[in-house]
Amino acid sequence: MNTHPGRRVLRLLPILGALALTALLAACGPSEEELRLAALQQDLTLANGTIDSLNFTIESTNLLIDEMRDRVDSLTVVDTKLLESVQRLNKEVRHWRELAGEHQRKNEQLSRQIESLKRDKQTDQRQIS
Fold first, then answer.
1. How far is CA 102 from CA 97, 109, 114, in A?
2. Cα of 40 vs its chain's centroid, Å
3. Cα–Cα distances in Å, from 81 out to 53, 70, 88?
4. 4-12, long-range: CB within 8 Å, 24+ apart, which pairs?
5. Window from 4-8, 73-77, 119-123 with minimum mean pLDDT
6. Per-residue pLDDT tens for 47-62?
7. What are the domain boundaries of the chain?
8. Are 25 and 31 in contact (CB under 8 A)?
9. Across the chain, which distance is largest between two alpha carbons, in Å?
């Protein structure tokens, strides 16, 4: 096969042109897909950082909630004891009020009896004189 060297070059020209175009595009910078991929990777990194931050915030909040629950449980026990003490004190106050009322009635009764005896004494003294 005797082919002319010019024909061989002509057949290789489109291939060489495509290679040259590819090399030229590669030399010009990243492709649009590469730029999008880089932007998506940055967005993913930012999203992961945000998720980590939110997870930390949630864990901190959960710890605070647990601490508050412990305090509420403790305060509930204290409230129960205080309520029992107040109820006991109320019973004692009622008892002492009833006792004070009874003593007051007896004192009033004794005062009336003393007044009656004083009148009787005055009456007796008048009769004697």
1. 8, 11, 18
2. 36
3. 42, 17, 11
4. none
5. 4-8
6. 999 999 999 999 999 9
7. 32-128
8. yes
9. 182
